[in-house]
Amino acid sequence: MDSAMNDNGRDVPDVRDVFDSAIDDVVRDMIGGDPDPSFRARVMERLGERPSPWRSVWILSPVAVAAVLFFAVIVQRDATPPAAPGAPTGARPVLSARTISAVGPARVAQPTGAGTLERNAPSAQTGTLFLSPVAALAPARLEVPSLVITAMDSGPSLQVPELETLTPMAVTPIGEPQGDRR
Amino acid sequence: MSTVCVSDADLVDRARQGDAAAFGELVDRHRTAVYRAALAALGSHAEAEDAAQDAFLLAYRRLDSFRGQASFKTWLLTIAWHQAINRRRTLSRLLRRIVSPSGTDPEAHDAAVASVAVRVPSPEAAAAHEELRGAIRRAIGALTPKLRDALLLAQSGEYSYEQIGAMLSTPVGTIKWRISEARRLVKRQLIGHGFGDER
Fold first, then answer.
1. Are residues B131 and B108 in the same domain?
2. B142 and B188 in one domain?
3. Which residues of A make CB contacts under 8 Å with B?
4. Chains A, B: CB contacts under 8 A, how many?
């Protein structure tokens, strides 16, 4: 320990060393002590306990939600089996007139031979029919007549009468103003 | 069977095979170290005891994940520290909700929580009424959690720097700096309160 001499010539410990030892003492006090004598018994008692179900639920809930979503996506995918080549697209969603008009004639496929809308239909080349066990449980497909779009008749064009040409106005320049000028 | 000369690794093996008594022996060997680490983090004997128990239970459930890369004690202390810190955060959030709903700096709040916890009279604290010791306690309580944790763990004499580094997930060099900085700040506080003249 560093020390210094005081006026009487006696060794006095450096104040920082006093602080250091005091800090050590206080820290030892702060985290000193032993656990309760029954500590081991209490731990051993709790070894057989199952983890709190609340905690399990809390931990698992995001996982469970993700699993349910994943399952829902799979089921939805399987519930709409790809159409066999040439088969009518019975259970396809029916497009409303507004949707069709929004898509426009260029996007809406021209009526094919069967007059169906080819939207997201799997290609015939990849058309191996995949039926999962879930899809097998799905209700029978609804047979709904396909949507037929007939071309609209072009109406008479608008007749706009030609406007009369007005005769040009003759404008004469105004003469020099008359009056006093300073 | 006597377990006096059995190593921790052997006890862990036996505990993994379902020997509860072997785990009980591990509890006996390390309970003080685990308890004091929790006490350093929480500042309350009751909370520390609960956190230490939770740490042992968690360690028991995770025994299969113990690979022996570090000693069992270091592994256990790391689990105990995380348990204690989680508990401290929970307490801190609770106190924050009670004290100031507007929410302020979390670090400052942690310090406030610790300083409150430090003032909770333990049997030791009740016996220590000297003015200087009280001031040191307050100064330690006012340190940031990082500095305070390092100081308390190191000065307890229970843990090596490597163990503290593993517990705090911090390099040993940083731990040493934190301890030194913590001491410097405590001394500055003491001098500021008129406990001595800086030479």
1. no
2. yes
3. 4, 14-16, 18-20, 22-36, 39-40, 42-44, 46-47, 49, 51
4. 112
